[in-house]
């Protein structure tokens, strides 16, 4: 998961060859918040009123205890961390360097989840399981993954490096590196080559999300129009397929909110609401 590092690692230490100690890791975690959150002002603010940072610090401590074979104390620390921050991270979850939870609310990370370096999660994200059987049952996120608000990544699947999960998506299958996933269930729709990447290496245009269902419907409508024109040509009716919706008084698509719909209703003697 260390391929294609890119410019995202500008906030990393110069030496990537050796794993840093706990304090060095926490320093990286804090420094990279300034890279990803324009609202961050100073370190004191981050450590005292940023629940995502607080939850990560506590998880780092709980994970050390879990790795040493302790079970109750790490779970107890995780429990109190959830009460304080509304972020639930199992002590056994493996989290890489420079991890950031933006807004830190309602995030759940399961026991066997694995998260790479430079990953960003937004509020309401769940890295959950789909079985009660022991073993690997939570997802693995590669390096540089961004998961939008409210998204659910479920099961022992892998989200490849630099992939992006759109807000409120439900991902239940593997995601190729560099792809964008949208919808329920999640579909891969946009490769990295078609995305706008910032100088910091992160694409934060959450509103620029393709709609695969809408695109499919648009293609079907275009195909129907072509077929109607072809049938009209074969029947000798050149007007067929032209102004197909001329007799319809309804709107098939969402109207532009420019006042035209309100004006049309007023002209028809209908009092618009809202």
Give your account of this protein's structure:
With 274 residues, the chain is of the alpha/beta class. It folds into two domains: 6-209, Hexapeptide repeat proteins (UDP N-Acetylglucosamine Acyltransferase, domain 1), CATH 2.160.10; 213-267, no CATH class. It has six helices and 15 strands. The chain has helices at residues 22-36, 43-49, 51-67, 72-85, 212-235, 260-267, and strands spanning 87-89, 94-95, 100-101, 107-109, 114-115, 120-121, 126-128, 140-141, 146-147, 152-154, 158-159, 164-165, 170-171, 180-182, 187-190. A six-stranded mixed sheet has the order 3-6-9-12-14-15. Strands 1-4-7-10-13 form a five-stranded parallel sheet. The protein has a four-stranded parallel sheet with strand order 2-5-8-11, with no helix packed on it. The longest helix is centred in the last third of the chain and has 24 residues, at 212-235. The termini are far apart.
């Amino acid at each position: 998961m260390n391929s294609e590092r890119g410019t995202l690692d500008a906030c990393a230490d110069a030496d990537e060859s050796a794993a840093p100690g706990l304090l060095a890791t926490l320093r990286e975690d804090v420094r990279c918040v300034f890279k990803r959150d324009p609202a961050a002002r100073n370190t004191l603010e981050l450590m005292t009123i940023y629940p995502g940072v607080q939850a990560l610090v506590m998880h780092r401590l709980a994970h050390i205890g879990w790795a040493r074979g302790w079970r109750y104390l790490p779970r107890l620390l995780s429990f109190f961390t959830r009460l304080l921050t509304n972020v639930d991270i199992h002590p056994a979850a493996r989290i890489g360097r420079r991890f950031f939870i933006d807004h830190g609310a309602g995030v759940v990370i399961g026991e066997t989840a694995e998260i790479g370096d430079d990953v960003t999660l937004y509020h309401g994200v769940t890295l959950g399981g789909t079985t009660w059987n022991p073993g690997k049952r939570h997802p693995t996120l590669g390096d540089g993954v961004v998961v939008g608000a409210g998204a659910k990544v479920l099961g022992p699947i892998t989200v490849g490096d630099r992939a992006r999960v759109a807000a409120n998506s439900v991902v239940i299958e593997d995601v190729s590196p560099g792809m964008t996933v949208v919808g329920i269930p999640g579909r891969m729709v946009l490769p990295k080559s078609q995305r706008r990447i910032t100088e910091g290496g992160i694409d934060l245009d959450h509103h620029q999300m393709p709609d695969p269902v809408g695109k499919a419907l648009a293609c079907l409508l275009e195909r129907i129009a072509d077929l109607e024109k072809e049938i009209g040509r074969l029947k000798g009716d050149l007007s067929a397929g032209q102004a197909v919706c001329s007799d319809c008084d309804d709107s098939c698509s969402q109207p532009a909110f420019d006042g035209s719909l309100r004006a049309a209703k007023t002209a028809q003697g209908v009092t618009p609401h809202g």
